[in-house]
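ok trying this again, last paste got cut off
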Amino acid sequence: MAITRATKNVKLGDKVKKKTNHVFVFLEIFAQEGGIQSYIKDIFRAYVGLRQGYKAEVFLLRDSPDRLNPFEEENLKFHYFKNQSPDLGRLQMVAALLKCLLQSRPQQVFCGHINLAVLVQILCQPLGIPYTVLTYGKEVWEPLKNQEHRALTSAAGIWAISRYSRDRTCLANSLNPKMVEMMPCAIDGDKFTPGSKQPELAKKYGLTGAKVLMTVARLWSGDIYKGVDVTIRALPQIAQVFPEVKYLVIGRGDDQPRLAKLAKNLGVSDRVVFAGFVATEELIEHYRLADAYIMPSQEGFGIVYLEAMACGIPVLSGDDDGSADPLQDGKLGWRVPHRNPNAVAAACIEMLQGDDQRCDGEWLREQAIALFGLDAFQQQLQKILLSSVIKSK
């Protein structure tokens, strides 16, 4: 009876050691918080629940074992290579990864960032092990360097989180879109849930009785595309219709002084509240303070839109980016020209008036979870992994 690579076991004494099916290679997961890290964690949540009972080894270049890892278990083994000398850490990871590939011969290697693709190609190609490159957004939206381009085009597969990101990556790097599998971001509907505004939290930020617009974003000078400044410019128009409007900005970064000065110059500094960094576990209560989530940005996808929708909060995004997917081309939210304060103001007024179906929190939550909940995410992951097995045969 034939034993497939997916189920082959090797006996060691009285124990049975499961064969490694997949290898994942990432820059970092636990040392930083952000959309990419959240996405990767969702991959692991889905992976350990797959009915095939796959086993994987995970290599993390910039993480160390002293950080809490809730995903460490029998079928998911982690290797950490953070070092005071980045070059030494990289060499140690290369050696350990090569040893793993030689000993385990996994079905597939998943490269978690374009910056690791050349390394993964060099190790996998001579061994005949197929690899897939995971992409997220702007890191692949411009023409890549020759080595990185070759590594991407030589991959057995490419993942993209949105149609926009797929199309922009393919256009910039002359790729065939058929190479690209769609693996969108996911939302945990059990974690992000609707609820009433906490009076104590509203009081803390001076939001009692206010109509609250909210944005969650990094406030870095290199990330002005997030559109916080555009929303601030829209506030005077919004305030003419809703005098009680306030804007809660969650996030930190070196661009905050510029944004605060802009609010002062426009005479709306009393309407803009900079909350600073808010830990993920406290974010749900902050979403519940909002009457509308506003981020006229240019995103590869925009997980924050899903988080807001799962909390029953209507959303606004830019109209030329990956947010077309979570907002379903405008079916689930407002999409406006991302640098246009007048368009943002008009949409915010509609949202705060609440007459549109897209303001129906219960309906919005149902739609978001049906399309992007963890169950849908896991089904898509299972489909891609099974497809990669068929292609490798």
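PB: full thing came through this time. The chain has a mean pLDDT of 93.
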